[in-house]
Amino acid sequence: MRKTAFLLALLLAGCVTPGGGKKLHSDFRLDYLAKSDIDMVAEAHQKTALESLRLLTEKLYKRNPKEWRRSGQAGPEAATARIFDVGLTDFRDLGGKRGADAVYLAFDEAYGGDRVLAFAAGLREMLLASYSNKTELYLTDDLDPQKLYNSARNLEIAAWKLSSRKNGAGEPFLLSNEAEGPVKNLSFEREFGKLIATQDTLARIVAEKTNRSIVKVMQSVATAVFLPIP
């Protein structure tokens, strides 16, 4: 209640001009009144996380052009937009697999489809699940810090699989970082680091604000399985 009253006061203050008249501040949205400070912080973190994942996806398509060709897209930008702008609703290209199962599919020797699609669409679904599948958060919404924490650990596992999993011929399923040669490319590793930090930071903020604890899981990424995000 106090948060709502505070936001209402801000609205009223923003509507008063120096001459005593009233105007609606151009940057203000009425739905801000139904949001807590945590809601706004969470939305900002989610936006940052999705932007990082989108960048990773486009970089993967550029590094692995045969993948976007497999799904019949015009280029890496169109293939990325299909996941993040258009959105996948039926996941037929992935045999109906979603979330963690889709990510596993990207490293399945028998899979002949777009591996970047499987990897990125699976991660996007897990990421959104950590925000209870909402992109707009309000006072009535309840963020779970455990979900956010679990999603960060799942991102660590996914990053390890991306950099280490190889097919029967000893080749990476997907090319990403390049540590060999005169010019090293570790941009994928750095972007994953930012993405993981974003989720971990928000998990701590929500835990402190809601007075809830996080059950921390210790496991080796080499043998770890994806944690549930119910």
Write the layout of secondary structure elements.
Elements: H1 2-14, H2 37-63, H3 65-70, H4 76-86, H5 99-105, H6 115-129, H7 145-164, H8 187-210
Helix pairs in contact: 2-4, 2-6, 2-8, 4-6, 5-6, 6-7, 7-8
Descriptive notes:
This protein has 230 residues and is mainly alpha-helical. The chain has eight helices and no strands. The chain has two domains: 1-34, no CATH class; 35-210, no CATH class. Helix 2 packs antiparallel against helix 6 and helix 2 (37-63) packs antiparallel against helix 8 (187-210). The radius of gyration is 21 Å and the shape is globular. Mean pLDDT is 85; it is low at 1-25.
Summarize the structure.
The chain has 230 residues and is mainly α. The chain is 53% helix and 0% strand.
Keywords:
230 residues; mainly alpha; 2 domains; 8 helices; 0% strand; globular; disordered N terminus
